[in-house]
Amino acid sequence: MVSLEFERTSEAERLERATSLRDRVRRRRSVREFSDAPVSLAALEACVAAAASAPSGANKQPWTFVVVTDPSVKTAIREAAEAEERAFYGGRAGDRWLADLEPLGTDADKPFLETAPALIVVFAQRFGEAKEDRHYYVSESVGIAVGMLITALHLSGFATLTHTPSPMGFLREILGRPSNERPFLLIPVGLPAAACTVPDITKKSLDEVLVQV
Question: Domain for residue 209, yes or no?
C-alpha cells in the first residue's frame, strides 16, 4: 500500500468544478460529418492514457485501444462496416428499431469512417495472453474506460461518434488483434465539418434519471 494522493478542496470549489464539468460535457454531440483535417496524435495518446487509468475488475485493465490513421485501413474498415450495416438496415433490424433510429437520420452509408482523420477502436480482452489469466467484469471495466475516453476527447476539443456496426468481428481481422480480444466500440475522432449539423434531440431531465433515497 502507498499513501493516497488526493487534492482536498472546499465545498464551494467542488460545486464549481462539478457544474463546470456538467455544462461542458452536456455540450458534447455525436458527429457524423467530419473535417479531414489532421489531428495531433500526441493529444489522442494523452486521451487514451487518461482512459487507461480507469478502474477495472481486479485491476486487470482488460482493454486495448487501436488508433487508426492509415487511409487504406480506414477504407477497409468502412467497406466491412457498410456491408454489416446494409444487412442491418435491409432486414436484420426490426421495424421498431428502425423507427427509433429515423429521427437521427442514420443509414448504411458511413463516409465518416474514411473522412475522420483518426479512428479509435476499443477492444475488450476476455482474458490475458493465457486463458488462465482470467479477467473480471470485462464489459463494466471497458465501459468505464470508454466513458472516460469520450469525455477526455470532448474536453480536449475533439468531435466524436460512438459507432457499433454489428457484428464487429471484422475489426479484429482487419487490425490483426488476437483471439482473446473482442471489438467493443469504434470511435471516429476529429474536428466537425464546417457545415456540420446534428439531430435536434434532447436529453432526459435530471428528475427523470436521478433518484435520491
Answer: no
pLDDT surpasses 90 at 91: no
The domain total for the chain is: 1
Q: Which three cell numbers stand for residue 110?
A: 458511413
Helix axes 138-155, 41-51, angle to 10 degrees: 140
Asked whether residue 95 is assigned to any structural domain, the reply reads yes
Residue 175 lies in a domain: yes
Cell of 95: 421495424
63-68 vs 159-160, strand pairing mode = unpaired
Q: What is the pLDDT of residue 43?
A: 98
CA-nearest of 182, 65, 173, 67 to 135 is 182
82-91: average pLDDT: 93
**Chain mean pLDDT for the chain:** 96
Contacts of 80 (CB under 8 A, 6+ apart): 165, 170, 171, 174
**CATH number, domain at 54?**
3.40.109.10
Nearest to 199 by CA among 86, 32, 34, 82: 32
pTM of the model: 0.96
Does residue 10 surpass a pLDDT of 90? yes
Provide the domain limits for residue 135: 40-191
Nearest to 77 by CA among 176, 6, 147: 176
Cell for 38? 489532421
* 166, pLDDT greater than 90: no
Q: What percent of the chain has pLDDT over 70?
A: 100
The length of the chain, given as a count of residues: 213
Strand partners of residue 189: 118, 160
